[in-house]
Amino acid sequence: MNGRSVRTAIPGPRSVELGKRRAAAVPTGVGVTLPVFIERASAGLLEDVDGNRLIDLGSGIAVTNVGNSAPAVVEAVREQAGLFTHTCFQVTPYEGYVAVCERLNELSPGSHDKRSFLVNSGAEAVENAVKIARYATGRDAVVAFDHGFHGRTLLAMSLTGKAMPYKRGFGPFAPEVYRAPYSDPFHDSGHLDDVIRHIETTVGASSVAGVIVEPIAGEGGFVVPEPGWLAGLAAWCADAGALLIVDEIQSGMGRTGAWFACEHEGVVPDLMTTAKSLGGGLPIGGITGRADLMEAVHRGGLGGTFGGNPLACAAALAVFEIIESQGLLARASRIGVSMTDRLQGLVDAEGPVGVVRGRGAMIAVELVGPGRTPDPAAAQRVATRCHEQGVLVLTAGTYGNVIRLLPPLTIPDDLLDEGLGILEGALKEG
Length: 430
Ligand code: PLZ
Known about the structure:
By secondary structure, the chain is α/β, with parallel strands linked by helices. It has 13 helices and 15 strands.
């Protein structure tokens, strides 16, 4: 696949036709960012059914960190599919599952004894982390944060901090979920002392089973907490006997230049969730944590039919290998520098580019109006301009006013530069 190419309107006629079938067969509730139907993809390019090739700065929401259909992933899955496709790990186990857990235990922060187990999605990983936290502590309350996103199942949705489109009309929500402010340096809010006072006052330290936090708020707009905030929260949890659950589903697996984003803050979670890029495009999630907590649960209390499916495990093992052999942690950091260098010059107190932030290959631009008020219309205009020119960017943010960049870590430099150039032009138009 060779370079960006826009041959038709976006979406083109064949995509429009498929869009009509989609509308008649799939409910509107399943949204769509850019209605081009994809036929094939590589590291950094998506080719649609009209022959347009788009530069991919979204990685299917931080999933294809190692590239789309990465050859080693394809080969591993192909080989595994020819051997066996499923047994259910709880019925008759297989090595691939154990090997993925070993790698998660080895690479996640902290040198203490750990255990991991595998599920099918991010939401399921979050649900299970909370199950374990409650079981191990004997407490009920779970604290989550403003701007947090943790999934769409009942408990994960209850932990999520945004009503539209995730929660409105879907209640009643799971009980014993409490919300605290998240640190946001740009808006000068969510300082650690205030957060702790808030939790102690509204929940009570001795009631908290766990505090679930994204080290960088993903769907919330790549908000990076002020330095020391996450570590301060970890220290408070340790004092209170509450567990720190770090949700690395979007920020993990090399995305920020470290295996896991909380490493930048020197934080060691009690429990950690992974999903998205763990499977390099195949559905898999993981829960990794302190052995004493993970072993607290009785036999049979954890699991699921498909969790750690053999194809997904084969893909995940290939993902670990690719990140290591291709030096993708360093590559993520370099991509971060290119993106930040390119966009930083657009920051203007008069708007609309209020701030450029993030870590490694997880960089976003927050668009604001006077007084730093959110400007979601500007974000939408910028995204649409990029889409029309064959560059897929994603929006984010509690107020929908953020453009986020999540390119595959294997994207060639020339594609990244071209994509950023188009984004820069779109941002200049405002
Ligand atoms: N935790 C931090 O980012 C998923 C959501 C897409 P699932 N983010 C993308 C959408 O519109 O639903 C996410 C996340 C963090 C948990 C999840 C949930 O992961 O695999 O989508 O369930």
